[in-house]
Amino acid sequence: MGYRIAVMGATGAVGRETLKTLAEREFPASEVIALASARSVGREISYGEKTVLKVRNLDTFDFTGTDIVFGAAGSSVSAIHGPRAAAAGAIVIDKTSQFRMEPDVPLVVPEVNPQALAQVRRRGIIAVPNCSTIQMVVALKPLHEIARIKRVVVATYQAVSGAGKDAMDELFNQTRGVYVNDPPTIEQFTKPIAFNCIPHIDKFLDDGSTKEEWKMAVETRKILDPDIQVIATCVRVPVFIGHAEAIHVEFETPITEKQAWDAWRAQEGITVLDHREDGGYATQSETAGEDPVFVSRLRRDPTVPHGLAFWCVADNLRKGAALNAVQIAETLVAQGLIGTWKAAA
Q1: What positions carry a catalytic annotation?
Q2: CB of 300 closer than 8 Å to CB of 308
Q3: Phi and psi at residue 231, in whole multiples of 5°?
Q4: Which range marks the domain in which residue 18 is found?
Q5: Which one of 96, 131, 210, 279 has the largest count of C-beta atoms within 10 Å of its C-beta?
Q6: CA distance to 129, 224, 340, per residue, from 108 (Å)
């Protein structure tokens, strides 16, 4: 059986990656529709190696008869068109922050909480977590099953692609400008990003944290366990693709390094690259374009009674967005949930 698929925000970085991932994984689609704003109508965009789609107008598109809609066009766009698509009978898999913390919308990472997809019957909308949260909870889940997690301290090193194509262009132009003595043009970030790190992602909240840091805490609790405490420091770094995280975990009971390694190796979606030698770890540049979450640098944390520390890397455009969304769609098909929602809509 083939499904009618629509991608909102198809011309953006995540939208393009979604189309690419759907084609690569041979998702059973009878029709794929690329949607974007009026200014992009008529543009051509690739779906796989042989198919070219012409962009259609999101504002006027009739979602009737559409099975799955991927939202990758920004929160304000999803707020308008996500409910509109769901009302027409489609299941919406939204990659923005618009619906993540709404209690009747499941927030899903298929390797971690696929059972939450049953909640799609409530509104027909599923939220994809923040990219930095996704890779962290994939790595934490098998450890949490061995010894319950009490507290997570995480520092992120996040690529500029997490802020979109214009942010990637700004890094490129600033980097080039350094070598020709051009002053940096700052539009997407608060300070120059070339050869710099900026400890500021999203807006500041009243307690001094940023919204990105808040997302990692509340999303982890919603996905994995409401009792886990999380403190994050989120940093934008001059890397085009790939988020890295230094994660320190405190457990309620003892857990050994061997137990952690064994659990990760048994977990779908995780690649262990951990050799205690020069170069024996994963970095952002070499994991770009790869599907798994990579874990490295595992060691005991002696500052707490039961603690481990490790390094976690993933492609933020793939597992952090497009791949996770497509895996949700695949799981929906496997669980037979698409027709159930359409019948109730």
Answers
A1: 131, 243
A2: yes
A3: -125, 125
A4: 3-128+321-344
A5: 131
A6: 7, 10, 18
